[in-house]
Recover the amino acids of this structure.
């Protein structure tokens, strides 16, 4: 694995088996219960979970704004890996890629989520490390370190 | 407007996807105003090669170049990188909260 693009990676160890976690990230009735960045409601979920199938989620933030990310499943390996594109209509940003990886861990599941820019040719040509240093330094440089 | 910003962010990310160019930006954070030949030296690059990298960074709006006499000095321009950072921070927040809720959901389900 290389880290040649800016990406967000989050790892969680969950006290539930991969089958449970897989259900929660692929079944619309379960996705409705957690998908969203604050305590605002998730309004609808459509998920055709197979390679080439589409998903569409609508959630409302506490401030009343509604968002509707959509995308296409790229890779579906039950209880192991789920990869889909992410497009936020109307947002000033290019399409990106989300990957959920599930690994059995100590009777539970280690979940690794990555949200990254879609790799393009320029990025594929670059297989060297170095992103971390830049990203570690950037917040300080930009004065946004928390 | 929206389209313009998206393509600008594409250029930012694509410019950042090269180790030499990231190295140039890192050096400019420490030493703003370096000349092109000073930038080229640690990468053992010839000037034309460095100029090409600087053109890409410049097209993406990541650097500005100013000429004083025969020396061109290079400075960082933070706007596009701030947009890229904002993108990362937005999704970090989005997924952190969503995954907290996901974990609570599946763990509660297992305890039942």
């Amino acid at each position: 694995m290389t880290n040649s693009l800016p990406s967000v990676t989050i790892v969680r160890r969950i006290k539930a088996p991969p089958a449970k976690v897989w259900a929660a990230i692929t079944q619309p009735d379960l996705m409705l219960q957690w998908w969203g960045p604050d305590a605002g409601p998730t309004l609808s979920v459509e998920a055709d979970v197979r390679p080439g199938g589409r998903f569409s989620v609508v959630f409302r933030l506490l401030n009343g704004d509604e968002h509707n990310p959509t995308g296409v499943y790229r890779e579906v390996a039950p209880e192991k890996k789920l990869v889909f594109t992410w497009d936020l209509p109307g947002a000033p940003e290019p399409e990106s890629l989300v990957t959920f990886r599930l690994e059995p861990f100590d009777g539970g599941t280690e979940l690794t989520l990555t949200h990254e820019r879609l790799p393009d040719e320029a990025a594929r040509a670059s297989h060297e490390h170095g992103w971390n240093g830049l990203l570690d330094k950037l917040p300080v440089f930009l004065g946004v370190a928390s | 407007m929206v389209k313009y910003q998206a393509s600008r962010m594409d250029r930012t990310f694509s410019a950042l996807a090269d180790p030499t160019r990231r190295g140039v930006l890192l050096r400019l954070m420490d030493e703003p105003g370096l000349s092109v030949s000073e930038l080229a030296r640690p990468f053992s690059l010839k000037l034309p090669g460095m100029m090409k990298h600087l053109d890409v960074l410049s097209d993406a709006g990541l650097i500005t170049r100013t000429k004083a006499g025969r020396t061109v000095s290079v400075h960082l321009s933070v706007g596009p990188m701030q947009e890229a950072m904002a993108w990362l921070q937005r999704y970090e927040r989005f997924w952190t909260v969503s995954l907290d809720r996901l974990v609570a959901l599946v763990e509660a389900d297992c305890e039942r």
